[in-house]
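Listing S7. Sequence submitted for prediction.
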Amino acid sequence: MYLQHFGLEKTPFSLTPDPRFLFLTPRHREALAALLFAVTERKGFMVMTGDAGTGKTTLVRKLLLSIPITCAQFSVIVNPAVNRSEFLECVLMDFGVENVPESKAMRLSLLKKFLLRAHSEGKTSVLVIDEAHLLTAELTDEIRLLSNFETSEQKLLQIILVGQNELNAVLNLESMRQVKQRVAIRMHIEPLPAPEVKRYLQTRWTRAAGRYPLPFSDDAIGLVARASGGIPRVINVVCDAALVNAYGIGSAIVGPRQIQEVLADLQIAPAVWKGGLDGTAAAMRAAPVRETAVTPNRAESASIGLKSLERYFPEKKTPMIFRIASWFGATQTATK
């Protein structure tokens, strides 16, 4: 609707978790590095939590795009509201298995053979469960049992649980202690700090190929930051609606009045910012805007992961760095 008006080629604030628009804060970089670490080192269980809309699903999609299909295969469950039998069927189907048998025993046997074949071919098999905070205790235990597929040296199935903050409460239950004991890595995604909101908007605007400067004033951005609490999804909703309104009145600038109108229409009340928001607009003006590559290639993606891994997992540096580097064809990066 407003693309031509603002000189855009793509919608900058779409709600679709598009990895091309992923904004990597230090915490997001750390999480991406941890995802790579969990997969390449076959750690078994990893848990990534965060408030709704903080970018967890986008990070998972970035992971899927970053690792070559010749090195890993993924089964991604986006709706875990199924029973135990249906869950196993979903896992097999998303791995690309056809003609899933009716018997659970046959399904388990088929999955084990499938994982062993992939292992013999040098592939890592990864099961990603999104919205994992919705898992029932019964289904969580079923997932734990799947982690028992292993050789004498390595896990055959790497499991990544991705969910909202409630997932931590579930895993901390006494009845979940067997699952909790198997979690090798835990990551938590935080909302954007106030000064990062402007960088977030500018990054998405640039990646949408905007020919004109970012139309949001600093005061408008400060108001977006306060109202959204730093949640990227809320930021996207507010900014997209504000662009529609600005287009409707023929304005090329989005100011605080347009943001206030959107907040009233969407019934979004200003959130309480943990770090305080006094002087937010001034902080926005002082914060330099840095832009990263729009579509980093695999070597560049590896570099992001390698640098973060060296920082956060120094004890695993040598073997893991070389494995990731070989996957991405970035051996020279790893040896510098």
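Caption to Listing S7: primary sequence and predicted structure tokens for the chain studied. Confidence is low (pLDDT under 50) at residues 272-305, 311-322, 327-336. The longest strand covers residues 157-163.
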